[in-house]
Amino acid sequence: MSDCLFCKMVAGEIKPDVVYEDDAVMAFRDVNPQAPLHVLVIPRVHIATTNDLTAENVDIVGKLYLAAKQIAADEGVAEPGYRMVMNCNPGAGQSVYHIHLHLLGGRAMAWPPG
Ligand code: AMP
Which domain holds residue 56? Predict the structure, then answer.
């Protein structure tokens, strides 16, 4: 998707602060962090929202979670705990239409979220 911000990162046209990458996923620090640790984990393939997940492409979601779990351990938040969340569509505050898993840690998290 030529007009997708995160596809441009995957293509190397925009260079985020990458903390992890493999053949399926890429993870980088959020430019507007909402916690001391705020990383976005994205698939290399373009999927606009979680509404677009299917039986054929859903395996990538597990890979996002495995990467996030590893990053949480590497960043030292695995034991105190962390939050992982995916927003879908405007009602949930999605602003970039390429699915991404937010990994937030390093502070206490309130519930319910805003
Ligand atoms: P969401 O609102 O769930 O779609 O999350 C999109 C996230 O992308 C927000 O937390 C933004 O701060 C983050 N973001 C937007 N542009 C960039 C960028 N160039 N580099 C890193 N994170 C970004």
Answer: 5-105
Is 100 inside any structural domain?
Answer: yes
For tokens 């009602």, name the residue.
91
Closest atom, ligand 1, to C-alpha of 38? 10
| Entry pTM | 0.98
Cβ neighbours around 42 below 10 Å, total:
25
Indicate which CATH number applies to the domain containing 15. 3.30.428.10
What's 113's DSSP letter?
-
Mean pLDDT by 10 residues, the chain (114 residues): 93 98 98 98 98 98 98 98 98 98 97 90
For ligand 1, whether the C-beta of 50 sits within 6 Å is no
